[in-house]
Amino acid sequence: MGESLSTKNETIKVCHTLLHSPKFFWLLLQIDADAAEQMHATVCPLCGDGVLHKANYPRKPKACPEEVLWDFQSRWSFCCSLCRKRTTPMSVRFLGRRVYVALAVVLLPQRRSTLSAAAIEICNTLDVPPRTLARWRQWWRELFPATTLWQGQCARFMPPVQTIDLPTSLIAQFTGAAHEAMGRLLVFLAPLSVRT
Ligand SMILES: [Zn+2]
Known about the structure:
This protein is mainly alpha-helical. The chain is built from nine helices and five strands, in the order ααββαβββαααααα. The protein has helices at residues 2-15, 22-40, 66-69, 102-107, 117-126, 130-143, 148-153, 168-171, 178-189, and strands at 52-54, 57-58, 74-75, 78-80, 86-87. Strands 1-4-5 form a three-stranded antiparallel sheet, with no helix packed on it. Strands 2-3 form a two-stranded antiparallel ribbon. A hairpin with a 5-residue loop joins strand 4 (78-80) and strand 5. It binds zinc ion. The site of zinc ion has 8 residues, from loops.
């Protein structure tokens, strides 16, 4: 199985270049736009009756390429015309309320020893404070495994994902071209982008 392992390692290395790829960020924007459009076309899921009006959240994302920054400065959200409650579609761009884009939260907290020199350089240019990285690592290893999403989905991965090696062990499960693999991984994680 040496071949599939090396393919996985290649994916892990190449993925980091996506942090500098406006094209990939446009793709993520499109996925979020589609989710928002679908939600907008429905009635309020909370009262089952009201019309959803746009009430987007302003965002100041970090680790976002300049070229797409403008489009990443808001997150789609809706407010009901009747019950006034908010409904926010899942996002592949923002993982919950974190300031950094979801892609950074997935790719940057990996162990330095597992990364290529190029990947480490990309991490360094983004200049994420060590404290933030430590917090993300703790989230991946201690809180993520306890999420409803992971509890419900972890059994589908073979071989089992080693929680001690998260997020690297999860990234390695998504193979193929880097943009496809990361796209699918972010879609997989999207339920965590909304409060459940
Ligand atoms: Zn409502």
